Amino acid sequence: xxxxxxxxxxxxxxxxxxxxxxxxxxxxxxxxxxxxxxxxxxxxxxxxxxxxxxxxxxxxxxxxxxxxxxxxxxxxxxxxxxxxxxxxxxxxxxxxxxxxxxxxxxxxxxxxxxxxxxxxxxxxxxxxxxxxxxxxxxxxxxxxxxxxxxxxxxxxxxxxxxxxxxxxxxxxxxxxxxxxxxxxxxxxxxxxxxxxxxxxxxxxxxxxxxxxxxxxxxxxxxxxxxxxxxxxxxxxxxxxxxxxxxxxxxxxxxxxxxxxxxxxxxxxxxxxxxxxxxxxxxxxxxxxxxxxxxxxxxxxxxxxxxxxxxxxxxxxxxxxxxxxxxxxxxxxxxxxxxxxxxxxxxxxxxxxxxxxxxxxxxxxxxxxxxxxxxxxxxxxxxxxxxxxxxxxxxxxxxxxxxxxxxxxxxxxxxx
Length: 415
Known about the structure:
Layout: H1 9-14, H2 24-37, H3 39-59, H4 63-66, H5 82-98, H6 106-125, H7 142-155, H8 157-161, H9 166-178, H10 189-202, H11 209-222, E1 223-225, E2 228-229, H12 240-258, H13 264-283, H14 306-313, H15 323-337, H16 387-390, H17 397-401
Antiparallel strand pairs: 1-2
Helix pairs in contact: 2-3, 3-5, 3-6, 5-6, 5-7, 7-10, 10-11, 10-12, 12-13, 12-14
């Protein structure tokens, strides 16, 4: 791809409001009114608003220069990991939307711009001669965020991996293999290594089969029942089953089982477990469109619904959960939480949950960590004609239950 600066008339015209300051309060009201008319437009504009600063700056080799880095008051001594965090996490949520083929619609033009920024940005991010050369080489944290970057490439391989130049592909593969110099923690981190190695397997590169098999075995060992995995040997009450465990387990098995590296039964069992977990997760959305503020990493905001969003994208929701009720629920959650209060004046995410609340951040959390919130946007990978978008909105489970509507009973499962 020929290198070029992305500051031009067409892109300036498309910039989200965070780069063109105005009456934010009025803008927020208008956004809410528009979202009620067209949920999809609201979703993709919001996703672009969140991710544009990351990829616009990466494409212009200015991410390190322009991205503010706010850290938890308890932040540990890891250095220079926040930029790969932002890129990897934003990629995994953005990818399904960018996987839709180009068209001449307004949305299609927005997708095209974001895809070009991503592709140009990746050439910078794995080029040692660029200012925005991303850190895959030091600290353990890159094991995590390289996995999220890979997750995005898996979800949109034809759009985000295949068009990369041979040199960029070669550079990225070299960086992914360099991660092997560090061991993942003996908990949910095992699946980060596994999905990275599975991606290498997918693109016909040398891969570590033992890391894949070991992660799958340990996750099965750590399964505690009723749709929940333990985070290592012990159970933790947080959203990590959604942030990481179910989605990455499924994506890993989807590659290796279909290529006969592991039996298909492993994938089918993981799907059953995720379905049960998703059923519980959907019930956590209150009638008002809020959810429990529990567990570590709560500053990942709507990333808590990664598993639910992925099930909707894959059209694999539990039979008693309709796509349109998921759309309705997640739209209301976004309206409540992803408003202007979570952005700084330049459009970067603030450290916090419903606003700027740095004390809610864990010791490993910085600005880049927050882009996990994009994981709730995965259904944008479905065309607008899909029932997820085209059906009339329906009430979600808790809203039905608290409004005297019929709701299927909830009961634990044995697998």
